[in-house]
Amino acid sequence: MLALLGALAEGAWALLVDPKGDLHGVTALAEELLGVPTQHLDVVATQAAGMLDPMRFSPTADEARTLTLDALLGTLAAEDRHHDEVLLERAVDAVLGMPQEVWSCQRVLTELVTTPLGAARGEAARELGQLLTLRAKQPALRAVLGPLAQTAQPLQIRRGLVYLGLAALDLPRHTTDPRHWSVAQRCAMTAFRVALQYALQVSRTVRELKKLVALTELHLITSTDEGRAVVQWLARTGRALQTWLLLDSQAAADLAAVTGLVEQLVMSFAFRAVGRTEQDAQAALLGRPEPGPRLRAAQAGLATGQCVMRDRHGRLGLIEFDRLTSQIATALSTDAGEDTAGVLDHDINAGADTLVVPSAPAAARQP
pLDDT tens digits for 326-347? Predict the structure, then answer.
């Protein structure tokens, strides 16, 4: 978070994605300490309905087709996707043939529900439309499939911080197999993926500013194949859009397993790790895939706030973060209130394991 605040101080546009909901202090610091404008968005709030509709925010028909079909299929059970894919593709194509000002996922659902019974698989299309209309009422999908709220606000595209709250999303945590995900978990993963797609689309329009997207608690999704695919896509797309990514995770092994991510890293920060599996994964992110005893000893002996850093030239060094003032320390603390009394200014990143920074322009952090 200190890296994020540093970018804001330099005049950047930054997006902070918070799956746990414990980083509100960053917005307060941005406003009070740095004097930069902030925007707070909660994807499950009624005011956000329709805000993440890929048919609305995609700049081209090609992107709208791909992202909308992906989002709609993501809400369905695995066994239903194969049978309903053609029906969804046909409905999306029909809407894309209309004037762009009427494009929306709601229009796609209407297209399905009103399919003539005499059409090929007309009854199946109507049933699918009715199912998705009902699913659009899920809190996690309100912003993606719901009707556009009158109070919905697009992400700001000027200098400042956009806070995207995802704490209410029930992301899959107990099984890596999408076939066993609940309806709420499928909807949550769809909303998470679409929110990140929207954020990177918006970053395209912020051409003259430094752009940074901070994705925290990535270990909540990288335990699944689908989650790792999202991170892989983010690193690749962020580089193409000249957007720096700051990736924060407590599971270095999951990040290291993301295909192509290690090659994308510019800088990495690895915090204390004792187990050999986590040490090996951190070492890979630090550019040392075969760690020797000195590196392992350093990883295991780090104090709170200390880390092994790999700089942009591939060199390693020990550094320590200092939050400078009690105001910053308090605002950035994510500990329970009863545990933070008397915390020292240098006591940061409790429980952190690794901080990674992906390739130019992408960065990753792992606590």
Answer: 777 777 776 655 444 444 443 4
| Inter-helix orientation angle 78-96/122-135, to 10° | 100
- The DSSP result for 132-158, as a single string, is HHHHTTSGGGHHHHSPPPTT--PPP-S
- Predicted confidence at residue 99, as pLDDT, reads 95
Give dist(CA 312, CA 289) in Å, integer.
17
SS3 readout for 230-263 = HHHHHHHHHHHCCCEEEEEECCHHHHHCCCCHHH
> Among the listed ranges 27-31, 79-83, 252-256, 360-364, which one has the minimum average pLDDT value?
360-364
pLDDT exceeding 70 applies to what percent of the chain?
A: 90
What amino acid occupies position 204?
R
Token output for 115 = 């399919």
Coil, strand, or helix at residue 356? Answer: strand
Q: Which residue has the higher pLDDT, 31 or 127?
A: 127
Count of all residues that appear for the chain in the document: 367
Amino acid in position 216: T
* Contact by Cβ (8 Å): 143, 42: no
For residue 258, the Cα-to-chain-centroid distance in whole angstroms is: 15
Alpha helices in 33-180 (DSSP H): 54-57, 61-74, 78-96, 105-113, 122-135, 142-145
Average pLDDT of the residues of the chain = 83
Q: Where are the alpha helices (DSSP H) in 174-292?
A: 183-205, 225-240, 252-256, 261-264, 276-285
Of the candidates 192, 146, 199, 195, the residue with the CA atom closest to the CA atom of residue 173:
192
pLDDT at residue 335 in the model: 64
pLDDT per residue over 93-121, tens digit each?
Answer: 999 999 999 999 999 999 999 999 888 88
d(CA 27, CA 332): 10
Contact 317, 295 (CB under 8 A): no
Q: Which candidate, 243, 138, 264, places its Cα nearest to that of 199? A: 243
* Cα angle: 72, vertex 86, 192; to 5 degrees: 15
The neighbour count for residue 294, using CB atoms within 10 Å, is 8
